[in-house]
Design a protein that fits this description.
6 strands, 6-stranded parallel sheet, 10 helices, alpha/beta
Length: 230
């Protein structure tokens, strides 16, 4: 029988931990077995039990403290995930052979992992070979999305993850309850607008004028194909 997995992706402050806690609680209520797998080497603590933890394989602090590497936080995280990709057999051992169970993979949110570094795609391929049925959930903080250009940036980040991972995909805007009335109205406007219109709003800015044609072209494709929704 297949196993079912959910990749939970979200940058710092996206509410990823709260989301995982909610899913774990939901599975407990409906009496469904769930295993949480931490794949974030920079994680600090959890409000739920963790079945496997990448920090048992490698930790961000170790990469940053290694004098021969001299990495900062971003470079250190990339190093950790590339090391993880070379040791995916470790993950297979940790997952065991449970069938018909649900797995929650708590993933790091650094955008490089979902743009031009193949680590997460290699993970998805490995899990598919292990008979997993995968879904990706991309979380982004609503407070980051209430300005047109930031909203466009968030859409492109979600699109990048969708293209890299090639799984069933859900995009979630989190922390709506923390927005004031004005920000909520702006968020509603942005969600009801097409991407090309938002880009054109800023195309007269000096910084964006040079790239407005390219930006409008990309936005037009994303809007017409209705690729990214929340």
């Amino acid at each position: 029988m297949p196993r079912y997995g959910q990749l939970v992706i979200g940058p710092a402050g996206s509410g990823k931990s709260s989301y995982c806690t909610t899913i774990v609680h939901h599975c407990e209520v409906i009496k469904r077995t769930i295993h949480v797998i931490n794949l974030d080497p920079a994680a600090e603590k959890f409000d739920y039990p963790v079945a496997a933890d990448i920090r048992d394989l490698i930790q961000l602090e170790d990469a940053m403290e290694d004098e021969s590497l001299q990495y900062g936080p971003n470079g250190g995280l990339i190093f950790c995930m590339e090391y993880f990709a070379k040791n995916l057999d470790w993950l297979e051992e940790q997952l065991g052979e449970h069938e018909d169970d649900y797995y929650l993979f708590d993933c790091p949110g650094q955008i490089e992992l979902y743009s031009h570094i193949p680590v997460m795609k290699e993970l998805v391929t490995k899990l598919a070979n292990m008979n997993f049925r995968m879904c990706s959930v991309f979380l982004i903080d609503s407070q980051f999305m209430v300005e047109p250009l930031k909203y466009v940036s968030g859409v492109m980040a979600a699109l990048s993850a969708m293209v890299i991972l090639e799984t069933t995909h859900v995009n979630l805007i989190t922390k709506i309850d923390l927005l004031d009335k004005h920000s909520r109205r702006e968020m509603e406007r942005l969600l009801d607008s097409d991407l090309k219109t938002l880009v054109q709003e800023k195309s007269n800015d000096k910084f964006n004028e040079k790239y407005s044609k390219l930006s409008c072209g990309i936005a037009d494709i994303v809007s017409r194909k209705n690729i990214v929704t929340y």
